[in-house]
Amino acid sequence: MQTVSNHLEVPMYRMTDEEFESAIVEALDAMPEQFLEALQNVAVVWEEEPSAYHLGYDDDEEPARPAADAAENDCEEESGEDELDDLLGLFDGLSIVERANGYDDDIPDVITVFKGPHERCFDSREEIVEEVGKTIIHELGHYFGLNEDQLAAMGYE
């Protein structure tokens, strides 16, 4: 465990990049086939940390709240850190509902999973793999047109 500036202990488990990629592959392999078949022009990628773009602000602006299609975790309550530091994933694109009026599929929609926040929020490989799966399902929910309240009601906050 790692201690943060407010002296509270928070979970921490480090993964290599290859291990994190494997966690994403495991999560995708566990998805129901009908979900994967319904995906059209969606890339699942990972990054070490959310960027200013992912957090919804320019370099010269103060951070805004994460977009409505962002998966967050409540480990910030344990650590006292701002929840912007714990953005687990983000769907960047148009939902199927929004695509109904036409869609130019030259550029794929993207689900980004963030490695650093997963490592800070969970203290074992098993937990990270499980939470990566939940993060991907959460972001897929946005692709299918679900909002945060609907996803929370389904247990994917």
Described by strand count, sense and barrel closure, the largest sheet is:
4 strands, mixed
Give average pLDDT, whole number.
79
**What portion of residues is helical?**
40-55%
Q: What is the radius of gyration?
A: 16 Å
Q: Treating each run of at least 4 consecutive H or I residues as one helix, how many helices?
A: 8
Shape: globular
The end-to-end distance, rounded to whole angstroms, is 24 Å
Kindly name the structural category: alpha+beta
Strand order of the largest sheet: 3-6-5-4
Strand fraction equals 15-25%
Give the ordered list of helices and strands: EEHHEHEHEHEHHH
Number of DSSP-assigned strands: 6
Which segments are poorly predicted (pLDDT under 50) over 5 or more consecutive residues?
1-7, 63-68, 76-81
Task: Describe the structure concisely.
By secondary structure, the chain is an alpha+beta fold. 41% of the residues lie in helices and 16% in strands.
Word description of this protein:
By secondary structure, the protein is α+β, with helices and mostly antiparallel strands. Helices cover 41% and strands 16% of the residues. The protein is built from eight helices and six strands; from the N terminus they run E-E-H-H-E-H-E-H-E-H-E-H-H-H. The protein has helices at 17-29, 33-38, 52-55, 75-79, 96-99, 115-121, 125-143, 148-153; strands at residues 2-3, 9-10, 42-47, 70-72, 87-92, 109-114. The strands form two sheets. The chain has a four-stranded mixed β-sheet. Strand 1 and strand 2 (9-10) form a beta hairpin. Helix 1 (17-29) crosses helix 7. The radius of gyration is 16 Å and the shape is globular. The two termini are 24 Å apart.
